[in-house]
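Q: My labmate handed me this sequence with no annotations at all. I'd like to see what the chain might look like in three dimensions before we decide whether it's worth expressing. Could you predict it?
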Amino acid sequence: MDAHQKYKTTNDRRISEEKQSEHERDYTDPVKHYVRRNVWVPAASDRLRKVKEREQRRLDYFTLCAEKAIDVHYFYMQNLIEGNDGRGYPTVVYCERDAVHYENLAANLGRTRGFFADFEYLVLNRNKQISKDFYLALPFDIYNLDFTGVCFPKGEPPFSRTLEAIITLITELGQPGYRRGFDIFFTFRAQRSAENETAVTQLRENLDDNIRQYQWYNDLFIGRHGNVAGLLRTRYHEFLLCSLPKLIGGFGKTAGFQVTCPYSLYYPRPNPQNPVYYIVSFVLKFDWVGVDMPIFGRRVRQQVPLQDIVTCSYLQMIRENIGRDIQNVGTTKFPRQTYRDEVTNLLDAVNNP
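A: Here is what I predict for the chain of 353 residues:
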């Protein structure tokens, strides 16, 4: 990858500082911390429980963390990842494509391993040394893909680089040598005006096809969300939360994993330069279905074909996902000042060890 440039002009610096201010408001906001505390930590704790059924260690964690790396420090405080006497986090890996942010993260996280590249580049450019190093670091127990942009950007093909990277990673983790359970935390911006309209149309057609073909899907979807056209027009964020877990989970099924989606939520974000948009967040859990199954501490030969197991799990995930009430964290009642104080205290503890 070409070396990233620092600011070339005063205007570049101003734009970067404005974006930095917006990101800081987002990542220190109590609504964002609600997601960390009530979604990421419970999901990670469940994954850690499964890890400890096999081996006594904490989580291997890959993250697209923001400059202050709040998720990393918070996971350490929750005893989910290993620390290293204040010098870094030996089981954590992060990546960042912005030169200034990368330098700040490196200073913040000490000896924690970081890749100076974006996630898509690491996964898709396998002939490059930095990508080879990333693949050598696999697998992780949790991949926190907290993207700052949309999933299907205008100017890219409908099957975007981001989606291609996600599917490539999931497929790789189903290959011999990996094949262990993991979670992916997804966070995207839902902003219809910034999305590739062809990709959105294809997602809509997929939902429409399911509604026409399967009566149970029709009854559940229409009963909960109404028709697809109306959902797409008035609640684009909910449309994404109905379609993306299904789409990405389907590739997990193909790779041989049981897939579940225990969390699905959204929250609004005001932006002075643009219309209001939403942040959508969901968790997909991938559990490998091997030849033998552990039952009461013993390995028991499976009697049900693998494909039947993963297909049944996938269909159950779809039923649960489209049948649930999608949570709007923006209107959820919780002690916001308490959450704000927790972030402040966390950052104080990190900055003043």
